[in-house]
Known about the structure:
Beta Polymerase, domain 2, five-stranded mixed β-sheet, two-stranded antiparallel sheet
Amino acid sequence: MTGLSASDIALLRASLLDGPAAIAAFGEWRRLTDFEGHHEGGQFRMLPLLHANMSRLGIDDPVMARLKGVHRHAWAEGQRRRHSAAAAMALLAAAGLPAMVTKGLALAQDYYPDRALRPMADIDLLVPKPRTLDAIAALERGGWRHGAAAFVRGGLARAVFMAQHHGLGLKDAKGNEADLHWHPFYESNHPDLAEWFWQGAEPIDLGEGVFALRPLPTPLLLHVVIHGTRPNTLSPLRWVADAAMVLRRAEDRIDWNAFWAMARRARVEMRVAGGLATLSDITGHRLAEPARRPPRWSVTEAIELSVLDNSRPGPRSRFNIAINMIVSAMRVWQGGNRALLPLMVAAWAKRRLQKRISLR
Length: 360
């Protein structure tokens, strides 16, 4: 259970299990947690789900009143996020652009018993890569702004940026945040992955007369596991709840052959296998035989898992930066953007030279 503390595991079990097992986990979490002190962001986002489960089990504890307040706050914030998502989607629809919601928006509705149980810090939208510039222009007309200089410069700078990244952040005048993605995965921009996400996408009602698309359960589950097992400065625990909810609601709709084929295409099989094992250990859920496939090894992922650790705060070593650059180039190559590699190398060299000059 790499990256999860004893307190994280107790919180997850208290939030997801039933009966005596959940109650015992709640007691363990209370013992390990200073509720009056600072709450790590990853755990704080789990508290509405914890409150709902403990309320269902009839737990009488002084902390329940505080948890209820967190639950109400999550509901209010969720309403604001959905309103901003509906506004953004309306702008894209008016421009004739297909768009999909992912992560929190896709999960909160239908997969969780109550949408407030899945808090969101922002909204995540996916558009077809060829329509990215149209989507940004449509959102900008509605007051959304981004700070990506490469998009302003355009040309090769923009092409290199889009090859190295899977999206960019925007913010509206009210401070609402959105991540606009042209690839669903940070780890890989292989076109087959994006095409798979769009295949058979199902409609979702965002309210206010606005509809969007949402990934089917199989790509949604893979997205949850890959995103959740990425090194992160926040405790990586909410993804376990997300994955558990997808399996509870739609395990019979999971195509495990496609799941593993796309994990292979993204070169993240080792991470995905570890994530599914963690999910089973925490929840006690026995995955179907096709889900327990031994992962195949890849050079790219092996380097990432053994050398890179982006979860540590503070500056990274020169060695780590160099390896990160190599892995980034490998992933761009694997995604079919090989012609851009010389430009990437030139851009890295230019930034390095400018940094040296500024230090003189």
